[in-house]
Amino acid sequence: MSDHLRRIGGLVLLAVALALPLVLNDFWLQTGLFVMAAAIGAVGLTLLVGVAGQLSLGHAAFAAIGAYVYAWSTGETTTSVTGAGLPPVLGLVLAALVAAGVGAAFSPVAGRLRGIYLGLATLGLVFIVRHLLLNLTDWTGGFTGRSVESFALGGFSFSNRDPDYLAVGGVEFEGLHRLWYLFLLLAVVACWLAANLRTSRTGRAWANVRDSETAAAAMGIGVARAKAAAFVVSSAYAGTAGAMLALAYGRVAPDVFSLTASVDFLVMIVLGGLGSVAGAVVGALFVTALPLVLAEYSSALPFLAAPGSGGLDPSTASRIVYGLAIIAVLVFLRGGLAGAARRLRHRGGPGTGEPATPGPGSPGPSSPDLDTSDGGHPAAVTHPRSKETTR
């Protein structure tokens, strides 16, 4: 029954998302595009960090690779930059494949490191990729970046042309409206794939590697291969998210994919709950939309000042809220918003929700040192000692 209700809830949310372009203005449509692109990147990162247990601070680097590969592969050669002039669909596929290839090339390093050391190694990717973006000016456009060709499929353009005029329900569908449905399709497919991958044999192998590499190896799991697969999948998600961000902006520049972007991705999955696909989407919504909304309505909020005026600007305010939210989640909501939702479902009685998936380092339901005979509350089990051990 719970699964049935969950599917109904998902269909309702999908129907709402399909109808939103009919009532939203350009600001909210643009914000929605950024949210959906960031959600795909966050889902890929939660598979790597939350499911496979590998810390990465270089997610922005893979997103930058995807964005620039799309911009170069679909762009035309001009006096300042070069381009391959490929179809946009092929450019989107190349963005994911090239990012995945870089992730595969980095996987031997990931197989040798873990924890903070792996995080620092991935951090180096951000600076390496940024250096390349600034110096490979023929491909990237240097510091100022390069423009991005609009997406088109079968002669239909997801911009204000081809066709020049398109209306649905009396609402003119311009570029932002058309991109909304493209991004929504990509986001739904990405989340569906991630949810199935998380519960598949590969996902269970990642979880075993996360909990104990020694135990995973003893079970016959190829630890290095599992780590490599996690990095490749996560990198492909990041590359797709980068290409989508390029389409949403209409232009790519190195500053979009700085270290701050990597931190933002981490904040998304921590707030939403490590390993949770739905939590990653909610975290992306919060982290991406908050600064944009504060900037849009800063004049109506008395505690915010205009950017550059010396007061509390929207960007700084959003960072403060991020910090407070992370502290609150770590102290009061272990497991993030997804963990809090699971606990609420379980309080409603048996059968009201799916069993909680043990997180990193948490005891499983079949732990030999716990007994639930005392009203469902765990109690320590006293193991009898043999005569030989008492002599």
Can you give a write-up of this model?
- The chain has one domain.
- It is built from 15 helices and eight strands.
- The protein has helices at residues 2-19, 26-51, 59-74, 88-112, 116-135, 137-140, 175-198, 201-211, 213-218, 223-249, 259-272, 277-296, 314-332, 336-347, 387-390, and strands at 146-147, 152-153, 156-157, 167-168, 171-172, 251-252, 370-374, 377-380.
- β7 (370-374) and β8 (377-380) form a beta hairpin.
- The longest helix is centred in the middle third of the chain and has 27 residues, at 223-249.
- It is globular and about 60 Å long.
Summarize the structure.
By secondary structure, the protein is mainly α. The chain contains 15 helices and 8 strands.
What's the SSE blueprint?
Layout: H1 2-19, H2 26-51, H3 59-74, H4 88-112, H5 116-135, H6 137-140, E1 146-147, E2 152-153, E3 156-157, E4 167-168, E5 171-172, H7 175-198, H8 201-211, H9 213-218, H10 223-249, E6 251-252, H11 259-272, H12 277-296, H13 314-332, H14 336-347, E7 370-374, E8 377-380, H15 387-390
Antiparallel strand pairs: 1-6, 2-3, 4-5, 7-8
Helix pairs in contact: 2-7, 2-10, 2-11, 2-12, 3-4, 3-5, 3-10, 4-10, 7-10, 8-10, 11-12, 11-14, 12-13
